Amino acid sequence: MHIRCLSTPALLLDDERLARNIRRLAARLAPFGVGFRLHAKTLKCVEVARRAMTTPGGPVAVSTLAEAEWFAERGVLDICYAVGIAPGKFERALALRERGVALTLLLDSVEAARALAEFGAARGHVFEALLEVDCDGHRAGLAPADPDLVAAANLLRARGQRVTGVLTHAGSAYDLGEPSPQAFAALAGQERAAVVAAAEALRAAGHACPVVSVGSTPTALFGEDFSGVTEVRAGVYLTQDLVMAGLGVCHVDDIALSVLCTVIGRRGSDGALVTDAGWTALSRDAGLKGRFAEFGYGLVQDENGNLLAGLRVNETNQEHGLITGAPGKAVPALPVGTRLRVVPVHACATASGFETVHLCQGAEEKASWPRCRGW
Amino acid sequence: MHIRCLSTPALLLDDERLARNIRRLAARLAPFGVGFRLHAKTLKCVEVARRAMTTPGGPVAVSTLAEAEWFAERGVLDICYAVGIAPGKFERALALRERGVALTLLLDSVEAARALAEFGAARGHVFEALLEVDCDGHRAGLAPADPDLVAAANLLRARGQRVTGVLTHAGSAYDLGEPSPQAFAALAGQERAAVVAAAEALRAAGHACPVVSVGSTPTALFGEDFSGVTEVRAGVYLTQDLVMAGLGVCHVDDIALSVLCTVIGRRGSDGALVTDAGWTALSRDAGLKGRFAEFGYGLVQDENGNLLAGLRVNETNQEHGLITGAPGKAVPALPVGTRLRVVPVHACATASGFETVHLCQGAEEKASWPRCRGW
What we know:
Mean pLDDT of chain A: 97
Order of helices and strands of chain A: EHEHEHEHEHEHEHEHEHEEHHEEEEHEE
Number of strands of chain A: 17
Number of domains of chain A: 2
Oligomer: homodimer
Strand order of the largest sheet of chain A: 2-3-4-5-6-7-8-9
Shape of chain A: elongated
Largest sheet of chain A: 8 strands, parallel, barrel
CATH topology of the largest domain in chain A: TIM Barrel
Distance between the termini of chain A: 33 Å
CATH architecture of the largest domain in chain A: Alpha-Beta Barrel
Structural class of chain A: alpha/beta
Helix content of chain A: 25-40%
Largest interface: A-B, 66 and 65 residues
């Protein structure tokens, strides 16, 4: 089916670019002999995940329990819930584990470890937990030398729970002042050093620590040393986006995701094209600091996916997108009804508005897949 | 049920504040004897709309055809689709009208009018259309004096379609440099003048123009003259948000919407509280220019809805929110598992992530209602 038959806005995934992005990371990681755990949080779609996971059953990382439940129902059984779990979610995690899902939980304090240990002991269940390590001060995790790391592991062990290892995420990769391959490689080294040090601290306390997990798309693609690491996680590399292009992690023409929209009018004052893709479709994510003038809320392609140089989505309202040109660049007076595609600033945020993703080859839809939403 | 039994993040709607906000606008508009059409785009929830609509069957304005279908299935039959329609959506609009829904469409060019007129004539259907008038250069609409306004109406009439009137929206109310009651009243005057002039131009060309529609929450609440106007539209006034509070349209304690979340940890470097409400729950909307330092991605309340002065959500990742204090203000070391509420910056954007809204009285859930999503 031609994509012009789709109701707009619609989320398109370019099959060829997706395959290329998957091959790129696989080729990059192969020489290191390190494991790979896909992070599913961008598309939250099992059919897409199957293209990238090393087996049909996983492994996968997820950002919500709703995703864990969604993937488990579809035969993916090796799942890491890679966000520190709130105690109110223990019941749902238990239900998944009792169904046979190898669900690993993430903890980053003695307090959280105690809560899980008490719940597990009370319910007669042995949970598997990773301890989160802070490698860059970004948000969560314990410093590798923090005595609470070993204390949390000991507390879990004392209540019969399993500590399977350590996990970190170099979230600061997206905020680097001067991003470059060298800077990402250095940050990957920092990720590795933090998590390996944490694993050693745990091993010194008698915890086997079989899992040593790192990851972010920039550090996965530019890391040069994964010794001591057992698995690398990455997610947005599947689709890439303008944040990644702005960081130099990919080129704009590697971006596999776009939002199909329709021109509904033109603004009288400046000829801006008005489309039916507002912020519900594109998200309010304005991307990298200082790059808004270049990328706006998205670059613009024609219906076939060819970039229309100089155009960008400069404003969004709830259901209106306004496309303008670079300074001095006229906006073509495209007719009402013209289909365009918008290349997303932040793929995860853009995808989150959609319940369906359409796999495309050029302007042909090849498949239509459901996405998981909510929590 | 106590809200602590809800899985987080969850969208809460305070029943008392909702009722107060509804009464405020109704009382404000009553002396003018003008009609009221609720805009449903914020909560997209028929149970909420029934509190504010003048009858159980409407009238209502919607921002997507999915909302029109959703409301029609639930007995709301007087619907204005208040976004310029893309030709690809005519079939769905026709299907609704053939089911007996009084669905009015919005057009703002001769080109769009021709497309609808040709479709209607080809399908033997008489559509009802409003012409969109530009009152402030915000995005869409024809200037009142633009000859295309009458040309579009004539073209529709010539093909047997019904032009029911004119509609405008003072979207620039949200961008006023110096917002004040006087500035909103002046803008309401500008809205009124534009749409009344457009109606007069149409009447001079022999179009009866029974509908003269204006609206935005600030102009609806502060307008001082609605003569010649037949209906006022407003939506976000139901819940209000920090954008509206920042503009002086409401007080922070008028805001009826919040996101219930759970503390999952604390950041080592600064003690920031880490919660499970990231940007999927709060949206990436950063609100009014220059007010981020004050409001962040949301202010913070305790579980019972009492504001915790000085705290705000300062950073969000996909599933992590980071709460910090104002400069010099310490962040309380709340235990893991503590429930908090986040007061939204932009209610429409925050609500859009949720499929359910929980009506609450204090910390008691009184009802749980589904929301429409998608397009």
